[in-house]
Amino acid sequence: MNLVGIMIAIVSGALMSIQGVFNEGVSKQAGVWASSVFVQFTALLVCFAAFLFTLRENSLSALFGVDHKYMLLGGVFGAAITYTVIRSIASLGPAKAVMIIVVSQLITAYLIELFGAFEVEKVGFEMKKLVGVALAVGGIVIFKWK
Questions:
Q1: Are residues 49 and 85 in the same domain?
Q2: Do 70 and 116 lie in a common domain?
Q3: How far is CA 71 from CA 48, 75, 96, 119, 127, in A?
Q4: Could you give the number of structural domains in the chain?
Q5: How far, in Å, CA of 144 to CA of 106, rounded?
Q6: Which of 6, 47, 97, 122 has CB 3.0 to 4.6 Å from 116, enough for a Cys bridge?
Q7: Parent domain of 114
């Protein structure tokens, strides 16, 4: 396995959990949509600054040449993600919400690979992956058990 990729994924998961808690805290005082606007706006500023700083990537005009235009909907998904994470953490608490979110991500990602959706390389079905998903779902059940 790629150790750097694993470390980046661990950091990503931690940052998503922390961000969700922060966003939910802001939304208690400012509302979900105000919090979401602030999150997306500050993300835009950070990304734009990083783009200007690195200048190693293609220009913004390269976006117009993207083969599959539906792939440009990432920002729409980002807004929906921010909203749904805030709402789920408010309803379930951080640990339960994030566990369900992560298992949902796992199932969705495996289905995308299994069917080769969205130009992703198709993989064959493996029973051990299905068992892994079942164990993850079982973990949520155990975690929520009173």
A1: yes
A2: no
A3: 19, 10, 30, 10, 30
A4: 2
A5: 19
A6: 122
A7: 93-146
* 83 and 111 belong to one structural domain: no
pLDDT band at 141 (very low <50, low <70, confident <90, very high): confident
DSSP code at position 116: T
* Beta carbons of 39 and 82 less than 8 angstroms apart: yes
Looking up tokens 């690195």 gives 54
Residue type, 79: A
Contacts of 66 (CB under 8 A, 6+ apart): 72
The rounded distance, in Å, linking the Cα atoms of 78 and 133 is 25
- The mean of the pLDDT values for the chain is 89
- Judge whether residue 47 has pLDDT over 70: yes
Q: Clarify whether residues 68 and 19 are in a common domain.
A: yes
Residue linked to tokens 């969205």? 118
Q: Specify the DSSP class assigned to residue 68.
A: S
65 versus 55: the higher-pLDDT residue is: 65
C-alpha to C-alpha distance for 110 and 132, rounded to whole angstroms: 11
